[in-house]
Amino acid sequence: MAKTLTPEERATALADLPDWHAVDGRDAIARSFTFQNFNEAFGFMARVALVAEKMDHHPEWTNVYGKVDVVLMSHDAGGVTDRDIRLAAAMDRIAADFPM
Ligand SMILES: C[C@H](O)[C@H](O)[C@H]1CNC2=NC(N)=NC(=O)C2=N1
C-alpha cells in the first residue's frame, strides 16, 4: 500500500497542479472541470475512466451537465498518495483535449 504524502510533499505536488486544491477537513485533493456541455463532460469522464481502471485508482466524482467535480484520495492509505497526484495530472492532460 502506498503511503500518504506529508503536508510538505503534498504542498510541493500541488504547486505543479495549480487547478487542484486540498479539501478542508479531509486528506484529499479536489478540482472542478467545466466543459461546454454534457457531451464534452462525459467524453472526458470516459477517457479518465480508462486511465483510472488501468491505474486501478478511481476518482470520487459527480457530474451535472458540463461540470465534473472530482475528489481524489487513496482509500486504502487513508489520504493523498502519489497515485492521486499522478491521476490528477492525467486528468489535467485529458481535459486539455476538450474545449472548456
Ligand atoms: C482492490 C482494488 O485494488 C482497490 O479496491 C483499489 C481500487 N481503486 C481505488 N481507488 C482509490 N481512489 N483508492 C483506493 O484505495 C482504491 N483501491
From TrEMBL:
InterPro entries: PCD_sf, Pterin_deHydtase. It comes from the Bacteria. The keyword Nucleotide-binding does not apply. It catalyses: (4aS,6R)-4a-hydroxy-L-erythro-5,6,7,8-tetrahydrobiopterin = (6R)-L-erythro-6,7-dihydrobiopterin + H2O. It is an enzyme of class 4 (lyase). SUPFAM superfamilies: PCD-like. Keywords: Lyase. PANTHER family: PTERIN-4-ALPHA-CARBINOLAMINE DEHYDRATASE (PTHR12599:SF0). Belongs to the pterin-4-alpha-carbinolamine dehydratase family. This is Putative pterin-4-alpha-carbinolamine dehydratase. It comes from Microbaculum marinisediminis.
